[in-house]
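REQUEST FORM: STRUCTURE PREDICTION
Request ID: SP-0412
Submitted by: Lab K.M.
Chain count: 1
Length (residues): 255
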Amino acid sequence: MPVTAQCVVVSVVFGLVMVLVFGKISNQGAIRRVKNEIAAALMEVFLFRRDLFQALRAQGNLLWCGCRYFTLAMGPVLVLAVPFAIILGHFNLRLGAGPLSVGDQATVSVTVASGVDLRQVSLEADTGVSVVGPVRVPKTNSLFWRVQPNQEGAHVLKLLAVEDGRQVEQAMYSGLQPGQPLGIYLSRHEPLTTLLFPNGGGGFSLPPGRIERVELSYPARSYTFAGAELSWISVFLVVSIVAGLVGSRLFGVSV
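STATUS: Completed
RESULT:
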C-alpha cells in the first residue's frame, strides 16, 4: 500500500477506535445532559440578547456548563493520552520518515560507556554505502559518522567494538532499505525516550557491551494534498478527527 494510503487508513482506524474507547470510559449520560444544557444556554443568549440581565445570566450558565463539560471530557482524554503518545511514536517511525535516496546523507551517532577507548569502536558498511568518519568527542564519549548511499536497494551497517582483544559486533541494521520501518534510536538508559521514539521495528536491540546509545536519523517525509505539502502529523490529526466525528454519529457516542 502506498505510504499516503497507509497514513489515511491508519488515521481513520485510529479515529474510530479512539471514539469507541472514549464512549466506553466516559460518562455518556452526563455528557449528553451537559451538551443539551450548553445548547439551551446558547439559544437563551440568542433569544434574550436584548435583555441585559437575562443575557448575562445565560452567558454565566453557558460558562458553567462549559466547565462541567471540560471536566467530564478531560478524565477520558487523559486516560487515552497514554496509549496515544506511545502509538504516535510508532506511527512517526513508519509514516514520518522517508528512506535515504542515492546521494542523501545521514548521521550515525553513538555513545559508549565511560572509560571505553573511542578508537576501538568502528562502523562498517557494504559497498553500497559511503562512510565518512568517525568524529570522536571524548568529553561526551560520542562518535559520529556520515553515511551516504551510492546505490539503490538494501544496505547493511555494522557497529563493531573491541572487547577483551577481539572485535565484537554490537549491532547490525538494514534500515537503509525503502519500505521498511525507518529511524533508529536505541538506548539502554532512557526507557521512556526509547518507548516514545522506538527503533527501526526490526527487533533491533543493544546487547550487553560497551555501546550505550545509537541513533540514525532519516529525512522527514511529506505528503501532498491539493497541491500543498503537509507533514504526516497534520494529515493524521485532520483525518482522525473527521473520522472520529463521523464515528461518533455512527456509534452514538457523545464527544
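NOTES: The CA atoms of residues 223 and 230 lie 5 Å apart.
Reviewed by: T.R.
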